[in-house]
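Researcher: We plan to redesign the surface later, but first we want a full-length starting point. Tokens attached.
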């Protein structure tokens, strides 16, 4: 009983620490320098999302602003997502390995970097034979008007509207809708595994920033999801109690990340101490939110390293009958 209490306390501390940091800066505001000239948010019509499947988690309660999209940094973002969806990116059957992965974009739970941390990642994975599924999870509401949204972001950065540090219980409760969306994504993939030629025991999850938080929360709290492997890309690396039979973890972070670059690497040490597989890449430069952007820093190589790691663990090879 005492061990369970300790685990809950550590998980809540980890979630509280991450939520406090993420709440201050949304991923979309931390663009690579190469895209700084495109930093203005420009409203756009909702793009076509062929194959997107609505998840049966319902509409976010108490919402007033409808889903909206904008471009920034030469990429595409969604906000005010009230209904979760899952978009499959299936590999050529000749390449398919039977492995699959849920991709969770970041954006501070205020926006979703759907292109840089979602679709582009999924296409690259599908090209390597892994069925990838982009999770458009439900978000905290932001002002409907773009100018008002931009003002709210500026106020957040200035500290004028900086929220208080959330209590541990509030941090966990605040992610309940997103965890439900992730669980529903895993359940859907497993239900249709035969149709999509997927091994239900070889489904992992990768997340970016807030999406990395959701990936860890799904691993910890979403027990029925049970990812076979996880990727934590520039998410918080605060210490936590490692769950029993924790999945192999790949983590990548830039040393100059303004959110988590100076927060220690307790999560990595915890995984090692528990004798669970973990690979960690600390890049000298890259900032926060580098994703699939092409940059003149070695952080651009994270995806190749992740693919090599998947290969080492057998996820880029078809499972033996």
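Model: Full-length starting sequence:
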């Amino acid at each position: 009983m005492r061990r369970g209490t300790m685990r809950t306390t550590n998980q809540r501390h980890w979630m509280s620490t991450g939520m406090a940091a993420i709440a201050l800066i949304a991923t979309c505001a931390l663009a690579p320098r190469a895209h700084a000239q495109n930093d203005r948010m420009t409203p756009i019509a909702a793009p076509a999302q062929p194959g997107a499947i609505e998840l049966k988690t319902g509409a976010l309660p108490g919402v007033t602003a409808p889903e909206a999209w904008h471009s920034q940094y030469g990429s595409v973002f969604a906000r005010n997502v009230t209904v979760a969806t899952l978009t499959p990116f299936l590999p050529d059957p000749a390449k398919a390995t039977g492995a699959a992965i849920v991709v969770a974009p970041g954006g501070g739970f205020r926006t979703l970097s759907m292109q840089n941390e979602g679709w582009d990642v999924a296409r690259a994975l599908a090209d390597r034979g892994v069925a990838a599924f982009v999770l458009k999870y439900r978000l905290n509401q932001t002002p409907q008007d773009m100018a008002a949204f931009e003002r709210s972001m500026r106020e957040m950065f200035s500290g004028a509207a900086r929220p208080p540090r959330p209590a541990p219980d509030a941090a966990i409760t605040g992610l309940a809708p997103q965890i439900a969306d992730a669980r529903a994504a895993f359940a859907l993939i497993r239900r249709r595994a035969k149709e999509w030629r997927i091994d239900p025991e070889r489904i992992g999850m990768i997340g970016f920033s807030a999406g990395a938080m959701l990936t860890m929360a799904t691993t910890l709290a979403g027990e029925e999801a049970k990812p076979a492997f996880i990727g934590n890309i520039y998410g918080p690396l605060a210490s936590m109690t490692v769950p029993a039979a924790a999945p192999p973890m790949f983590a990548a972070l830039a040393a100059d990340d303004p959110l988590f670059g100076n927060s220690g690497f307790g999560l990595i040490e915890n995984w090692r101490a528990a004798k669970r597989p973990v690979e960690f890449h600390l890049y000298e430069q890259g900032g926060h939110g580098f994703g699939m952007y092409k940059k003149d820093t070695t952080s651009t190589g994270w995806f190749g390293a992740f693919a090599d790691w998947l290969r080492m663990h057998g996820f880029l090879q078809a499972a033996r009958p």
